[in-house]
Structures are given as C-alpha cells and as structure tokens.
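Researcher: Good morning. I'm working through a list of sequences from a screen, and I'd like to move beyond sequence-only analysis. For each chain I'm collecting a predicted structure so we can compare shapes side by side. This is the next one on the list. No need for commentary yet; just the structure.
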Amino acid sequence: MATYIVFTKESTQDQCELDIYLSKVRETFEGHPIKVLAAYGAQQVLEGPAPEGVVIVEFPTTTAAHEWYDGPAYQAVTQHRFKGAIYRAVLVEGV
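Model: Good morning. Structure tokens for this chain:
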C-alpha cells in the first residue's frame, strides 16, 4: 500500500541552514523508491493557517518510507532542516 510523507514548513529560522539541507536532500533519494508528488508549489489554503511550503513524497510501503527517513543518509542532513526551519512531518498510509 502506498505511503506518503507530508512535510509542511511552518516558518524559516535560518535560511543558510535550510539552503544546505535543500542542496543535499536529493542525494538521499538514491537507492530508495521515492516519488516527489509536490514540492513548494502554489497553495490554496482551505482551512487553518498557511504553511510556508508543502512537500509530499510517495513510497510503495510504510517500510520503504521508514527506510529512507530513518536511514543514515537522510538523518545526516536533517540537522540542517531542524536548524533551518520549523517543519511538521507526517507519515500517512494510502487507501
């Protein structure tokens, strides 16, 4: 069953750190069955406060999503995302 990770950037704290993260994150996709469905596209907020940006990535399974997210390559770059901005990340299984 497809699984998605939805990242919402709530607020930028340090653009330099965020730029480092953005320059390195694509490298972490190598060897993982990841499909980027949306990345900082135009938004139409229907409810609640608007996030600064939204990224949605798809994986074939929950296991595959965890293998990427929890893996050493992605975890090595997350420090820059954590320093660069406040994000929410939610893993959701498809139907």
